[in-house]
């Protein structure tokens, strides 16, 4: 499988957006595979970062962006979940940083295969000098970080959703939510490592918080209006899986017959196949978050006409 062209210059540069006093979102266009958002909270003497980036280059650029706002060091790094685009850069924050995440996030990172430059599902990506750096402080349900007098509540969503270990970073006094990959704004939701039903539960939790500002895992800063379309997409996945299973179709065959309608314009539409693999597994009685295997990835490539997944990280 040959690599797709990596025209990084075609993408708009990352930018900082101050979403509340001293609270910043770091937005990386275009938000497709492995081009994630991060963010940080500035205190008097220290910074809390929400997530790292996918590559050495992107994480170092993020750290430089923090340095344009404050000279305070990053003392704490939160991982909203275990996927490599949000955790690969953990190792670049330095030995004095406490990495915080759900207990299953640590287990996932330690159990993942090493990142292969030029190989794996995203051939051609230069990950850089990346070493595993899992959370060193883990929790099961919730923990509160304080940045001066600003509370940052880390809440496990209680069920597999995007992954088995999704965490919300909620600033209640500021009404700002860092949602991780429970929210894609402009991109196709992806729940192959979690649960379709669990994702809807997580969205209901987000709605119950009533945030004024949502920093999604991918895409531009948004508000609660983003939730309805995500729920509608998940309903489409569920119904397509039910019909496909009844008709004896494979997940790939069901995806090829599926009319994505308004969701066809979202980034990375091939994720419908991976999502259907998860939905089929749940219909067959698999536990939420149970491993799916590599067939879902192979079928996404087939849905994509045999071309590798578009990753410009």
Coarse shape: globular
Instruction: Find the structural class using helix and strand composition.
Output: alpha/beta
Q: How much of the polypeptide forms β-strand, as a percent range?
A: 15-25%
Q: Indicate the mean pLDDT.
A: 95
**CATH H-level superfamily of the domain at 8-226:** Ribonuclease Z/Hydroxyacylglutathione hydrolase-like
SSE string: EEEEHEHEHEEEEEHEHHHH
Low-confidence runs of at least 5 consecutive residues: 1-6
Rg of Cα set: 19 Å
CATH overall fold name of the domain at 8-226: Metallo-beta-lactamase, Chain A
Please write the CATH class name of the domain at 8-226: Alpha Beta
Number of strands: 12
**If helices are DSSP runs of H or I spanning 4 or more residues, what is the number of helices?**
8
**Order of strands, widest sheet:** 1-2-3-4-5-6-7
Q: Architecture of the domain at 8-226, according to CATH?
A: 4-Layer Sandwich
Q: What percent of the residues sit in helical stretches (DSSP H or I)?
A: 25-40%
Q: Profile the largest sheet.
A: 7 strands, mixed
* Distance separating the two termini: 18 Å
